[in-house]
Amino acid sequence: MNQTTTVASLPATKKRKFKLPQEFSILLVLIGIALIFEVLGWVKRDQSFLYNPQGLLIMILQVSEIGLIAVGVTMIIIAGGIDLASGSVVALSAMVASSFAQVVGYDRAIFPSLGGLPVIIPVLMGLLIGAITGFINGAVIVKMRVPAFIVTLGMMVSARGLARYYTGGQPVSMFTDDYLWIGSGSNPVIIFLAVALFFHIVLRYTRFGKSIYAIGGNVQAARVSGINVGKNLIAVYTIAGVLSGLAGVVVSARAQTGQSGMGMGYELDAIAAAVIGGTSLAGGVGRITGTVIGALILGVISSGFTFLGIDSYLQEIVKGLIIVIAVVADQFRKKRAS
Amino acid sequence: MSKVQQQENSSVSQQDAEYMFVAERVSKSFPGVQALNKVSLKIRPGMVHALMGENGAGKSTMMKIVAGIYIPNEGQLYFKGQPIVLKSPRDALGKGIAMIHQELNLLAYMTVAENIWIGREPRNMLGLIDHGQLFAQTHALLSKLGIDIDPEVELGSLSIANRQMVEIAKAVSFNSDLLIMDEPTSAITEKEVEHLFRIIAQLKAEGKAIIYITHKMDEVFQIADDISIFRDGHHIVTKTASEFDHNSLITAMVGRELSQVFPKEDVPIGDIALSVKNLGLKGVFNDVSFDVHYGEILGVAGLMGSGRTEVMESLFGINPAKEGEIRFDGRQLKIKSPADAIRSGMALLTEDRKKTGLFLSLSVGENMQIASLPDHCNMGFVKQSEVDELCHQMVGKLKVKTPGLDEIIENLSGGNQQKVLIARWLLNHPKVLILDEPTRGVDVGAKAEIHKLITQLAKQGVAIIMISSELPEVLGMSDRVMVMHEGKVGGILSRAEATQERILALASGM
Ligand SMILES: Nc1ncnc2c1ncn2[C@@H]1O[C@H](COP(=O)(O)OP(=O)(O)OP(=O)(O)O)[C@@H](O)[C@H]1O
Ligand SMILES: [Mg+2]
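# magnesium ion complex -> structure
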């Protein structure tokens, strides 16, 4: 009897091995939505939604921009926080990076004497802007114990203001070819996938990643377990900031212009992507793979609607609904599993 | 008595109005676990029915079914002779079944009164909450139960023991006929235990039935009328308490005899590991001085609120002390955070496992390895198979009942969660191991295992500080006993000097 109590695990462990990955259900949702658009495409336009390389590339490019931010925000949410500033940081870093990416001899350049800089300079400037804003977010949250919601809300407003102030609201353009290359073809997609893969590995296989889950799961227990909560949180916010900065570079390179209105509302799409992908706003739960799928779902929905020529206001209504439905469905699945 | 007993053993199909509550062939399974397998149970009114069994035997699961929290896969429940179907805790409360949970479920930022009456607050004519009435009826309830707590204070400001008393008062406030108590005494001291027992006697006299889950043998014999034993999801036997004795009860629970309860061995005491001088934290404790040697087990006794937990948390850097000095291996040490303490070779199993121990959303493996990851990393990457192997060994050694390392820890029974936390610190190979209530909620068999482990560690030269509210545990395991009283060291007794009476006298300041 006693034997069975302690070794009771064996058959169960085996069964567990065959368990489907957590992302499976959300992947089904993605496929389902895509198929619905496929059918509707044939019905309404007599055209395939999925077999449409041009349309799909545009969609994936958009997904990549939101996705870059979403990777960072996923980590922040897992750590028990939130980031509302990412969209504005995209704009700010896009402006700053753009101003260092202009060609030689363009007389209306922001820094006329700094034309034709090597591409690494604007890129690093964009990332630096992201790092600074992220670091400020993290430091204020940790050191002054202000809720993340408030701090990043403040940063959202200020960073947007700063982006406008930087050029007095003027857009920046005339970029070097090297800078434009970043946003050309499928490069943004490659950058996004590389970043997603990198942080997927960080979250799953490094001590830093595990500490983030622990902090989001139970801050006090994390501290008692010897985790330096403050340092890790600041690192997470800084990383997320860098990713927003990177998104700013990519966005401006792809659009061939830096504008202070860029990234508007991206923060909410990024949060939605994370949550649809199974990241719990309560902290301690979430995966990058889920977030990638979540971002794809959002992308498929908006490009699907555009494809069908549906009114953009209606698009937003349905997008909102689908976000909630996706999360409810996920909750339902979790409940049924237990 | 014996007539009832006979019926217990005979066919269960006939529904007897004599019973307050009957469960018939109830089963419940979770993914990978058959938690209950055709369990039948009969509860008499005006009696205390104790449920006992090893960690993970299915006691809490059974009671959650009775309280409407889980829906059984099969089986039938009868309440006062009528078949009932419970779909939610609300259903159960409405019918007159209330439960005190193993894990506290109260809201820290609301007042005691709000916590007790949440969802049932008295309203005034405008339909708004009538706070005067709310506090008045809370006051009446608490004084009827003899509990001395201000209804208007925030719950979070109370000690765990007092929070537990509030939870008890809340359950009583439903005026239920069947009251379930899942390990109600695991977080309270003798004084509150006595108090609880008086409340239970009062309830019994009113004809209410009480189901009482505990791992404490002395309690069972003190208050139980009937005892049911669960093992591995099966109901093994139900008898009246007088038909059991200590040994037969243990044998029925663990399925074998348990020889030695406190396997304390005398081991050579080494040098001073940790030396604490005049440690103080304003308003919490002051002038605390003690040493602990390598190979020694220093027991720490004292009433709830005497500052014993706070001293250890402070030593460990959770709330660093403002005054005094700490020496480790003779060198003075500044410990500003738990990370510092761990780095210098300390480990602390905290008292409140839900608040400062568990990562409920993470897996058993992740919970176990979190504190020792620094030892198993290569350039920041965790050597996963290496740590997992160690975790597997711990699961076996501590007999943690879990479907696997990747089970979410929230799904483990309370006692098994405790074992995972113990494993967390053992994996860290500390030089000084501080254990705050190490065997809380752990079954008798596992308790003996943990005691054996502590003894082994001492033998290997680890310095051990063990806080415990269970005097037999302190007396049985300690080389010396430090007794705390109102934030001060009341006295330090050698193993020879330490007796129950002397500890109690020092603990109460005499
Ligand atoms: N929600 C759940 N999901 C999965 N498994 C569960 C869940 N709740 C309980 N279990 C499993 O069911 C079994 C019985 O658990 P239960 O909590 O009833 O034990 P218990 O007898 O109360 O133990 P303890 O004395 O440690 O409190 C355990 O193996 C536990 O892991
Ligand atoms: Mg239990």
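# post-check
Chain A has one domain: 59-337.
The first strand of chain A starts at residue 172 and ends at 173.
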